[in-house]
Write a structure and sequence with these properties.
single chain; about 260 residues; mainly beta; Laminin; three-stranded antiparallel β-sheet; two-stranded antiparallel sheet; 1 helix; about 0% helix; about 35% strand; calcium
Length: about 260
């Protein structure tokens, strides 16, 4: 039997007085394969398929295609095929309501501010947020700390709060001082003066700060001359002078 192919086959016939020897080759017509040239395979790369033909006549899909007729595109690696598909290789087109590189992220409800979703069009609020769009602050006190002057904040409704003010203060945020000096807030004999925002302390020498509670560093101005060492004292300072100098700030030279 002579099989189709590119190689030549030698045939020999022996007779009583002669020998006949010849070579023969059988080739199938283009796009036909098999031992009887009855298997057809026509390569194509169009809407009806994307494949080439093997020597045996079997179809082999081109890169990026699969299926019996090589008509199904292979989507981008990682593409969630439950929520996306592709019409050309390497693509990942998301279905309605899904987004992201791999179509694995749901689209939240339009206008959702502080919320997430598990399925499309949800708006599940994060902690301390409420409302249809998760835009209502349920912890206004913790997030904004609106109460001043020692007031205690209490959340009442979304985006609402109430301040419990200490004695001597009133207003929405306890910003109004009422007889603020009654509690004698100024330390170290400071003098209290009421002002619209509360009180001010006029501090005696050697003290500073909002309530005169901070000991002023008199050595900060380097008062000791001639290399003397300054020691800060309460409401004053002392200079330790070199042997040849004296006085409060080491400015007086000693006679030998």
């Amino acid at each position: 039997m002579i099989n189709p192919g590119d190689h030549w086959q030698t045939i020999q016939h022996d007779g009583p007085v002669a020998r006949l020897k010849y070579r023969i080759r059988l080739k199938c017509d283009e796009n036909y394969y098999g031992s009887k040239c009855n298997k057809q395979c026509r390569p194509r790369d169009d809407y009806f398929g994307h494949y080439r033909c093997e020597q045996s006549g079997n179809r082999v899909c081109l890169e990026g295609w699969m299926g019996e007729d090589c008509q199904t595109a292979i989507c981008k690696q990682g593409c969630n095929l439950l929520h996306g598909d592709c019409s050309v290789p390497g693509e990942c087109k998301c279905n309605y309501g899904w987004q992201g590189q791999f179509c694995d992220e749901c689209v939240p409800y339009p206008g959702c501010v502080h919320g997430t979703c598990v399925i499309p069009w949800q708006c599940s609020c994060e902690r301390n947020w409420g409302g249809l769009l998760c835009d209502k602050d349920l912890n206004y006190c913790g997030r904004h700390q609106p109460c001043v002057n020692g007031g205690t904040c209490m959340n009442t409704e979304p985006d609402e709060y109430r301040c419990a003010c200490p004695d001597g203060y009133s207003g929405k945020t306890c910003e109004i001082a009422e007889h603020a000096c009654v509690s004698d807030p100024c330390a170290n004999s400071g003098t209290c003066h009421e002002v619209p925002s509360g009180f001010e302390c006029h501090c005696p020498p050697g003290w500073e700060g909002p309530t005169c509670a901070n000991d002023m560093d008199e050595c900060a101005s380097s008062p000791c001359a001639q290399g003397g060492t300054c020691i800060d004292l309460e409401n004053g300072f002392e200079c330790v002078c070199p042997p040849q100098w004296g006085g409060k700030t080491c400015q007086i030279g000693k006679t030998p």
